[in-house]
Amino acid sequence: MSKKNKIGVVYSTNPDYKYQYEDEVEEPETLPAERQRLRVSLERKGRGGKEVTLVKGFVGKDDDLQALGKMLKTKCGVGGNVKDGEILIQGNLCDKVRQLLAAEGYSVK
């Protein structure tokens, strides 16, 4: 954390004092799979004509999203990426991704 982002206190003699920072944001708790409503779509824009299966709508911690993305990539046998709250799977694998998510208990649209 940058020292410039500290709120209110410049210096404290208390060794147990915890500084508060402006950009601290709590991640929401991960909802159970039954309550998640994920959207699976195919996208080609901005990717040089390559097709990408996109999974949106995950509510929860980033670590859980990373784990779900890794599971989908390994079961599909392709590459991909997880960023900005979305899972990108290389190729047109919408049907397979929907089946995998439904098997895990997610509500898929």
Short description, anyone?
The chain is of the alpha+beta class and 109 residues long. The chain is 24% helix and 21% strand.
Q: For the CA atoms, what is the radius of gyration?
A: 19 Å
Please give the alpha-carbon distance between the first and last residues: 39 Å
Count of individual helical segments: 2
- Largest sheet descriptor: 5 strands, mixed
Structural class: alpha+beta
Average pLDDT metric: 86
What would the principal axes of the Cα set say about the shape? elongated
Strand tally, please? 5
Give the total of domains: 1
What is the CATH topology descriptor?
Translation Initiation Factor Eif1
**Which architecture does the CATH hierarchy give at level 2?**
2-Layer Sandwich
What topology, given as strand order, has the largest sheet? 3-4-2-1-5
Strand residue percentage:
15-25%
Note the run of SSEs as H and E. EEHEEHE
Measured as a percent range, the helix fraction is 10-25%
Which runs of at least 5 residues are low in confidence (pLDDT < 50)?
none
What is the CATH homology-level superfamily?
SUI1-like domain
Features:
109 residues, alpha+beta, 5 strands, Translation Initiation Factor Eif1
Can you describe what's shown?
A hairpin with a 2-residue loop joins strand 3 (about 80-85) and strand 4 (about 85-90). With about 110 residues, the chain is of the alpha+beta class. It has one domain: SUI1-like domain (Translation Initiation Factor Eif1), CATH 3.30.780.10. The chain has two helices and five strands. Strands 3-4-2-1-5 form a five-stranded mixed sheet, with helices on one face.
